[in-house]
Each structure stands twice: as structure tokens, then as C-alpha cells.
Design brief:
Helix content: 40-55%
Radius of gyration: 18 Å
Largest sheet: 3 strands, antiparallel
Order of helices and strands: HHHHHHEEE
Shape: globular
Strand order of the largest sheet: 1-3-2
Number of domains: 1
Length: about 220
């Protein structure tokens, strides 16, 4: 009976992710390259790369178009910032995005946070201004990022605050000038995480994830 219960839960989880995937696929096809999300409280919008051909127009402010946009933005930031870091590294990047949303000084949506500064010099996430968005993606890695983003947005995967409330990060290969002005919280894989406040760094994780970084990106 325990096995049957676990099997039922597993089927439920798979159905949840599958439903999200269908919604995303349908929305992407309908909205296509025209999709954008511009919250009234923020100045930035998410550029869209490699969108499916438009098949039918959806209202710009429909719930479906917003869901598709938010999923795409979360997928992009996890893919471009941590696609070589495994699920732990990608979830850490997602935590930074949500921490910034809660902070209130970076934007009030996923897309607003991810693409802050994209229309002017000073992107908060380097991939938004580096030209990476127009380069071909690795299909397998992109699919993994999309799936993980969907699971996070549906609640099937819960973020555990592994970064201790971090709002900033950088790759271990760089030493940004802002780092000493913030409080270091942890290291996950090849990224070091920080939150607002003076120095007083804390040790990195005892067994950080080891992976090859996708790029020497940093968040400022």
C-alpha cells in the first residue's frame, strides 16, 4: 500500500509538470516573438530569443502571456548563469531572483528583476547585455533549465534558501569591486553569494558542487 501511495504521488508530480509544460508550449506558440511583460512599477522588459512562430494573438496582459514570460525569464537566467552548475547551482540563481523580488528595489516580477538595466548600460545579469541571447543554445541544457523553472513555478520543486537570502553573486574566477561591501553568505559550485550589508564573510559550503562554469558572469 505504501508503494501504491508513492506511485500515486509520483504520477501526480509528473502530471503537474506535464501540465505546466503544455501551458508553456501552448503559450509560446501563441505569443511567439511578440511576448513582453512590462509591469507598471518597473522600467525593464524581457527580450525574447528563439521564440516559436506566432500562431494566434493573446491579449498582452493575459494571465497566460504573463506566465509564459515569467517562465521564460526564469529559464533564461538559470541557463545562462548556471547551466554548467547542475540543479543545485541553477536553483541558487533562482533564489537570488526571488530574493531580489522580495527586496523590492530590483523589480516586482521575475522578468523585471532578470532584465533590469537591459535597456541601458548596467545589466544586473551579464548575459542580458553580452549578446548571449542571440547565440544558439545547447538544446539539452536549455530543456533542463525550462523543466526546472516549470517545476519551481508550480511548487513541485521548492527552493530551500541555500544561499541564505543572497541578492548578489559572482563567479569564483572574478573579483568584483562591490564584493567587499556586501556580506558573503555561501559558495555553491563556482559561484559566491552575498546579501546586503558590510563584510564579515562566512565560510563556503563544506562540500560545494564542483562544475565547469558556463561563463565568467557576475551579478552586481
Amino acid at each position: 500500500m505504501i508503494r501504491k501511495k508513492n506511485d500515486a504521488l509520483a504520477r501526480s508530480d509528473r502530471a503537474l509538470v506535464a501540465t505546466m509544460a503544455i501551458i508553456i508550449a501552448t503559450g509560446s506558440a501563441a505569443v511567439g516573438a511578440s511576448i513582453s511583460y512590462n509591469p507598471s512599477t518597473d522600467k525593464s522588459a524581457a527580450p525574447v530569443a528563439m521564440a516559436a512562430p506566432a500562431q494566434a494573438a493573446l491579449p498582452k496582459d493575459s494571465a497566460l502571456s504573463r506566465l509564459v514570460a515569467e517562465h521564460r525569464c526564469l529559464s533564461e537566467v538559470m541557463y545562462y548563469e548556471a547551466r554548467g552548475e547542475g540543479s543545485s547551482g541553477q536553483k541558487a540563481i533562482a533564489e537570488v531572483v526571488f530574493a531580489r523580488m522580495r527586496n523590492g528595489n530590483y523589480g516586482h516580477s521575475i522578468c523585471a528583476v532578470v532584465y533590469e538595466g537591459a535597456k541601458r548600460a548596467g545589466c544586473q545579469f551579464s548575459f542580458a547585455c553580452s549578446g548571449d541571447l542571440v547565440r544558439p543554445r545547447d538544446p539539452e541544457a536549455w530543456s533542463e533549465a525550462e523543466t526546472l523553472a516549470a517545476r519551481i513555478l508550480t511548487g513541485e520543486v521548492r527552493l530551500t534558501n541555500a544561499t541564505n537570502g543572497a541578492t548578489n553573486f559572482h563567479a569564483i574566477s572574478v573579483s568584483p569591486e562591490w564584493a567587499p561591501t556586501l556580506r558573503r553568505t555561501t559558495q555553491i559550485g563556482n559561484h559566491v553569494f552575498y546579501r546586503g550589508g558590510p563584510g564579515n564573510a562566512v565560510p563556503a559550503l563544506a562540500e560545494p558542487v564542483v562544475a565547469t562554469p558556463a561563463s565568467d558572469s557576475s551579478d552586481s
